[in-house]
Amino acid sequence: MVTKLAIMQPYFFPYLGYFQLVAAVDKFVFYDDVNFIKSGWINRNRINTMGQTRYFTAPLCEASSFKKINQISVKKNDIWRRKMTETIRYSYGKAPQFKIVNDLLNAVLFSGITNISDLAKYSVTSVANYLGLTTQFVFSSSIYENSELSGVRRVIDICIKEMATEYINLPGGRNLYDGRDFSGKGIDLYFVSPCQNRYASFPGEQNTGLSILDTLMFCDRNSVREMLHTEKSN
Predict the structure, then answer these.
(1) Would you kindly state where each structural domain of the chain is located, as residue ranges?
(2) Using CB atoms within 10 A of its CB, is residue 159 exposed (0-12), middle (13-18) or buried (19+)?
(3) Kind of pairing, strands 188-192 and 232-233?
(4) Rounded mean pLDDT of 28-36?
């Protein structure tokens, strides 16, 4: 039985707050059969390079907001993958945790996965495993059979099917959900308050809101696990 549930689109090496949500729940549902969002975080994120914020991106094939996330492939060649690893090496080669995090990155990039939904999911689960999180993961497309529903109706249906008593979301969900819709079904709605933990990185660099890769490069796994503790509120 699941007590605490979260539902989010799969993001590519997302920021620390995403993992604070992962750590706060028993089961995490990757919302993979909803429409792709262009210029979002499904196939890209940000790092710090020589004091400048820079995007790294998994290039896609025929991406469209009219397609579901799990219908979109990444480009099959390894050119972009090698460029990304070189960018990360250039940016973090002298970081204290570079070797172990670079190995994790390469395992994801060169895994042979060609679907962006699967690749983004693998980036999240690989980090979660590295941090020793016990959260269960599942795709929304795999078991719920409710794609005809949308919005809050679908979210609540998933909660009911999982027998969840708490649905937990990031702060952006406050504009989407009303706690009364959930309480009427015996579900408590909560929001985590992600804290942008500052940590020692290269001199002069700002490290808030960046990909989890930045955090992992400078902090050992125990320190990052401590950062995952966050408060939740209605």
Answers:
(1) 4-233
(2) buried
(3) antiparallel
(4) 97
